[in-house]
């Protein structure tokens, strides 16, 4: 009789624990769903020609995917930052945010984006103030991040201060990324390659 009571107690206890575990899993799942829904998709890839392209919001981690690191890493490592211009540029980067529209499929973006990251790293720029938007070859995103931004060519690097656009570099710099950035951020007259 004692054995039967002991076995029934064990079964009841394990059923109770199983129910608690199930509740924990259900709670965890709903929390994960909430956090998943509240998070924006980042580093989303879609098929492109024989590979993939990033499309929408992205970051440096996305550029380290196999499809992109073959051009990003050498472009970053091999770029020699103009240290003289960089020293002049650093104070102007303090209160600035930067939005980059680029295409992982685009040779100009493949050239300029790693260089920009290297410059910003050397300047100790806060990467949380950099927004990377990757576009289709029509310069669009599913979320319409480009809407109202007049993105005609990529890369387009837009500099903001207090949510006001200070200027932009379009497709390629006029002198160099560092010198063009300094001109824009210091308030000198600057016209990008496609300015009328």
From TrEMBL:
InterPro entries: Thioredoxin-like_sf. It holds the Pfam family Thioredoxin_9. SUPFAM superfamilies: Thioredoxin-like. It comes from the Bacteria. Transmembrane segments: none annotated. This is Thiol-disulfide isomerase-like thioredoxin. It comes from Aequorivita sublithincola (strain DSM 14238 / LMG 21431 / ACAM 643 / 9-3).
